[in-house]
Design brief:
single chain; mainly alpha; 9 helices
Length: about 210
């Protein structure tokens, strides 16, 4: 069987595809498990490639260890979500000051309304982002901005993130090769879908 990273085309002009290939190449190294943890941690606050791609590559290579990989991925992601929350919390005054000063129509009352609305639906918002393809990092950082209860973010993440990653490992245990080929074949389309979901995450945050 070819190495996992050999399943994708050797070169591409798409920078996200090149980054994707760089991510999954770690599955063929002795550092796959720590790389998965670091990727899951960083994706929860700033990195653009979701940890699922490395998790899937590792599941494909060693499906019997899939649940161990899912646990590592979940731990890294939840801790990264806490870090994202801290970033949002520490930067909130600077962001708030910028918005009030330079964004037309953005006032102190508008800021307070956004914070109130997010707090009213904080658990559902974080859980939805943790479990679905909606970018989780948007909601971890926004949670700090809006000062939602830290425990709410942690509990929602502890439920949503493992549910997602264990579902991925279960899927790849039964049909891993087909799923990997599907991702490689439709990567550009999936990139567009990811972008739509990223925008949708901001829109949802504004609506709740």
């Amino acid at each position: 069987m070819p190495a996992v990273c050999d399943l994708a085309p050797a070169s591409s002009r798409n920078p996200l595809r090149r980054l994707y290939r760089w991510v999954i190449h770690w599955s063929d190294t002795p550092y796959a498990v720590p790389a998965l943890f670091i990727l899951a941690f960083s994706e929860s606050s700033f990195f653009p490639i979701p940890p699922d791609v490395l998790l899937m590559a590792m599941d494909l290579a060693q499906p019997r260890r899939g649940f161990i990989y899912a646990a590592v991925c979940s731990a890294g992601s939840v801790l990264g979500g806490m870090f994202g929350y801290a970033l949002g919390y520490l930067l909130k005054d600077a962001v708030k000051g910028f918005c009030v000063a330079y964004v037309p129509g953005f006032t102190e009352n508008v800021w307070n309304l956004v914070v109130q609305k997010y707090n009213e639906n904080a658990f559902l918002a974080v859980f939805t982002a943790a479990f679905t393809p909606i970018p989780y990092k948007v909601f971890t950082i926004a949670g700090g901005f809006c000062e939602i209860p830290f425990l709410t973010l942690v509990v929602a993440s502890l439920i949503g993130r493992p549910a997602r990653f264990f579902a991925v490992s279960t899927l790849f245990y039964f049909c891993g090769a087909w799923a990997q080929q599907f991702i490689d074949r439709y990567f550009n389309l999936l990139t567009i879908l990811f972008t739509v979901l990223l925008i949708g995450g901001f829109v949802l945050l504004k609506m709740i």
